Inverse folding.
């Protein structure tokens, strides 16, 4: 059991169950998985009382936990059940599909080819939902109005054919295909002309209401059904494979409903009605938030077609604001309060609850805190959890987190504890920020990057009730951090030399941090030298005994003859790969182009050179964590030369300010632009040309184009002879070699010279 206190990069679209059925909101599977893995154990019972499409259940089952899902919306219950059920007899599934295909073919042909008059005259004899009112904010009155007659004809026939299937499991799965198709092939479908470049889609999921687009688009029902069948078949192939070992003894019918998973249509406010007290080992849940998603109203179309009942009582119990019943904020808060009290009843003592919070208003966060404490939960922490892949690092103002999620973790205790939310003085803001940063730097043993620090500061400020004020006061946190800490050449934050670490940091941690820092910087060190480097930082009432010091040293380092060295496991922590991986924590912070430049800066640092990065590139905040120059050290330029040289992607400088190497990374700009910039640099520093230390980095796909451009350029031949001054390397090859060079113990500039090759000029 481990408490999750870090953000996880959300990977939504990659899971096998992603395409099984759309829903109004979905959790990122890998985030849920990490929580379940840490907060529970194999065989445990995991509950999600607001389960939606059942992401929590799937992940729990994948990790061999038993899973229970509760939702008021019968559509959600249906999707969850059909997603979890395994194994599926895919041969049968395919066979039934071929049958449907064959039987429906003439009607599909008719619908696709018939004159409108014939369609109008066509009488639908079988059942379909008629007279069921859509929510009042819809642009359509009744469920049947959501379809063109051509669509309706096929839907009705499909339902008849599906109902004929004798195998219950397969029949239900076809209903899922049907239901999935309903989500797309209806008249709320927006063409991308209306919706913009992200492509078309039904408005139900984009606007959270049944909105009528200006342009009517009639999506072909059968074609869509076919595609959805393929998607679901693929998903089931995956899950059959994934769970194949589970079907064998001793787990046996692991994935059979009511054996290892259970989905209940009911309200989270009534959990003790279906679950015994203290029977659950872990709860992960993502309750509704905000006013704009009224789940039951929005599911009207599906529930009508699938024949699911939604009663007035259900609507009363739905924990939302607004909706058809025009629920107030108080109604919403009361329902959430009740459900939290119920969660406390069914959860075992000392077990955990993780609750996702994504409301824009911090007051609601406070409300959840309070409700949990009243119910008998002990507050553990709040974790910043981004929902998309934008890096916090890249965000202009990292304190504006409310577009993301926060996950609050609690532990069920015997007694109600009094911890958590307390309003603090505004003057505490800076202290909170700095204390937190310092703690993170020390906790990470000197390998914390900016993102690690931000991710911890936000929850701390929130807990103090100061986030909104901090947010107004600090548009940028970096200047404040820079004043008190510094970044090393790897971009890792360090405590400034000579600074005493705060009282709140445990002495052992302090010893570990300073010892690690010294050894990392110097490689091997004699014991006395380590003591000399570490002890002066540990005065201030916290001087350790030699025994204490030796214990810590023994944990992180080992003696090599007379000297000490960091243990290999500890050293790994400081490997260069680390910051790069971490920077990717929230997705791709760099464009391909800037990633190469990032690598060039790292190489320069490794070689003991300074790297200047191009004016445009400097705007990318992702470079903030790096040690680089943002001004050119050379002063001899004319205005025009300077303007050109400033655009060069990366220039390395020796300590005395003379240029050592220049690089242009060309993805799509013409090679001649790069040559022009290089030429401006050569006018002042011709040596770079003579030593051929001008390197073009181009994608492999551009080789021919580059050679052509170069051949026809006026830079070739007399008087510039640029072809003899510039070399090139493929970007792919460069990135491959980069890590090798970076991690080799000693690198010289000559090694960089071996990277490039000459242009093969195309003769006339
Ligand atoms: C944010 S969604 C959950 C989405 C889910 N985490 C997923 O990844 O698919 C919230 C769910 O709570 C359900 N809900 C609302 N009020 C409820 C209540 N009183 N009891 C149980 N479920 C409720 C809604 O129907 C909706 O499916």
């Amino acid at each position: 059991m481990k408490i999750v206190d870090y953000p996880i990069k959300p990977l939504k679209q990659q899971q096998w169950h992603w395409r099984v059925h759309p829903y109004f909101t979905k959790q990122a599977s890998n985030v849920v998985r990490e929580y379940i893995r840490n907060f529970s154990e194999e065989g445990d019972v995991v509950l999600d009382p607001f389960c939606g499409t059942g992401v929590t259940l799937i992940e729990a089952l994948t990790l061999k936990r038993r899973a229970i899902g509760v939702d008021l919306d019968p559509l959600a219950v249906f999707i969850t059940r059909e997603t979890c059920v395994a194994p599926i007899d895919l041969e049968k599934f395919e066979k039934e599909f071929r049958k449907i295909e064959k039987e429906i073919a003439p009607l599909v042909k008719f619908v696709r080819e018939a004159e409108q008059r014939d369609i109008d005259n066509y009488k639908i004899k079988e059942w379909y939902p008629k007279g069921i009112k859509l929510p009042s904010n819809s642009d359509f009155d009744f469920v049947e109005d959501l379809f063109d007659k051509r669509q309706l004809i096929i839907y009705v026939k499909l339902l008849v054919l599906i109902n004929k299937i004798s195998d219950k499991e397969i029949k239900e799965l076809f209903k899922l295909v049907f239901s999935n198709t309903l989500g797309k092939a209806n008249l709320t479908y927006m063409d991308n002309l209306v919706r913009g470049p992200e492509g078309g889609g039904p408005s139900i999921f984009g606007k959270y209401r049944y909105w009528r687009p200006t342009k009517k688009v009639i999506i072909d029902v059968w074609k869509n059904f076919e595609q959805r069948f393929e998607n679901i078949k693929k998903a089931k192939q995956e899950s059959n494979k994934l769970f194949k070992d589970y079907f064998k003894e001793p787990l046996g019918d692991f994935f059979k409903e009511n054996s290892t998973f259970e989905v209940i249509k009911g309200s989270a406010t009534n959990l003790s009605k279906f679950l015994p007290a203290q029977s659950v080992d872990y709860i992960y849940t993502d309750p509704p938030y905000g006013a704009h998603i009224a789940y039951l109203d929005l599911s009207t179309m599906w529930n009508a077609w699938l024949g699911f009942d939604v009663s007035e009582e259900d609507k009363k119990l739905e924990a939302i604001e607004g909706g058809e019943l025009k629920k107030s904020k108080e109604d919403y808060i009361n329902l959430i309060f009740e459900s939290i009290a119920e969660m406390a009843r069914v959860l075992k003592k000392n077990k955990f609850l993780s609750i996702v919070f994504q409301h824009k208003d911090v007051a609601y966060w406070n409300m959840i805190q309070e409700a949990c404490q009243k119910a008998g939960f002990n507050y553990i922490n709040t974790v910043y959890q981004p929902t998309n892949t934008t890096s916090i690092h890249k965000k202009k103002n990292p304190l504006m987190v409310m577009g993301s999620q926060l996950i609050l973790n609690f532990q069920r205790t015997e007694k109600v504890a009094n911890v958590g939310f307390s309003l603090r003085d505004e003057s505490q803001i800076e202290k909170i920020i700095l204390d937190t940063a310092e703690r993170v730097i020390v906790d990470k043993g000197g390998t914390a990057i900016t993102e690690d620090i931000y991710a911890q500061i936000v929850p701390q400020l929130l807990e103090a009730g100061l986030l909104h004020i901090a947010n107004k006061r600090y548009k940028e946190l970096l200047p404040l951090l820079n004043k008190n800490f510094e970044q090393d050449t790897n971009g890792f934050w360090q405590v400034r030399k000579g600074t005493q670490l705060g009282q709140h940091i445990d002495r052992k941690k302090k010893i570990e941090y300073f010892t690690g820092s010294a050894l990392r910087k110097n490689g091997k060190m004699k014991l006395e030298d380590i003591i000399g480097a570490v002890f002066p930082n540990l005065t201030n009432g916290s001087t350790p005994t030699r025994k204490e010091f030796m214990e810590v040293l023994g944990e992180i380092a080992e003696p090599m003859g007379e000297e000490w060295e960091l243990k290999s496991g500890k050293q790994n922590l400081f490997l260069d790969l680390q910051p790069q991986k971490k920077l990717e924590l929230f997705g791709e912070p760099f464009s391909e182009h800037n990633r190469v430049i990032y690598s060039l800066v790292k190489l320069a640092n490794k070689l003991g050179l300074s790297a200047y990065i191009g004016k445009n590139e400097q705007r990318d905040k992702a470079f903030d964590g790096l040690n680089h120059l943002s001004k050119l050290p050379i002063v001899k330029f004319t205005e025009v030369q300077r303007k050109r040289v400033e655009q060069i992607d990366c220039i390395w400088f020796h300590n005395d300010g003379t240029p050592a190497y220049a690089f242009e990374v060309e993805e799509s700009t013409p090679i001649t632009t790069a040559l022009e910039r290089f030429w401006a640099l050569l006018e002042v520093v011709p040596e770079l040309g003579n030593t051929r230390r001008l390197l073009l980095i181009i994608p492999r796909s551009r080789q021919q184009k580059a050679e052509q451009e170069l051949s026809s350029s006026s830079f070739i031949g007399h008087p510039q002879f640029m072809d003899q001054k510039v070399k090139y390397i493929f970007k792919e090859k460069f990135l491959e070699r980069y890590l090798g060079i970076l991690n080799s113990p000693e690198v010289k500039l000559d090694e960089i010279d071996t990277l490039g090759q000459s242009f093969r000029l195309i003769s006339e």
About this structure: Confidence is low (pLDDT under 50) at residues 416-424, 571-588. The first strand starts at residue 45 and ends at 48.
